[in-house]
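[agent] plan:
  1. take the single chain provided in the ticket
  2. run structure prediction with default settings
  3. attach structure tokens to the ticket
  4. add a short note for the reviewer (M.T.)
[agent] executing step 1
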Amino acid sequence: MDTKKTVLFIVIAIALGIVWYALSPLLRNIKMDEASPLENVGVVDGQDDPLSGEGIRATADFVPKAHAVEGQAQLINVGGDYTVRFENFKTINGPDVHIYLATDILAEDFIDLGSIKATEGNVNYAVPDGTDFQKYDTVLVWCKDFSVLFSYAELGT
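[agent] step 2 finished; step 3 output follows
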């Protein structure tokens, strides 16, 4: 094989690898149904318990940005531990998708809650202690590799 054909083969192989990396997650739909943190604390229908302050502190519908989305984000307090819960969530997958609590939809100032656990269902993400929910009040579904906002929910706490 001559040099031009070898170089062309290598370029095509690299391009196919990049395309596979970017598009293969779209083929993986991950379903999950985690129990709500409120399930074992006696909070009825997610309503706040005025004595303990436990319950759903904020709820917002997801808004599509780069990709279609369904469901809600909830901010839940149980015993001073906060969780962001996705309810009836559905979106597409992508490479290196993370869940952020951010100050806005630009992801310039955010707290990374970790990689997306599921593209469909009910999922919980633990929030670090001491998080300022007045500041970090927007949930982002963010593709780190391409700096793309899939969708967001403004909790407005």
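[agent] step 4 note for reviewer: DSSP finds one helix and ten strands in the chain.
[agent] ticket updated
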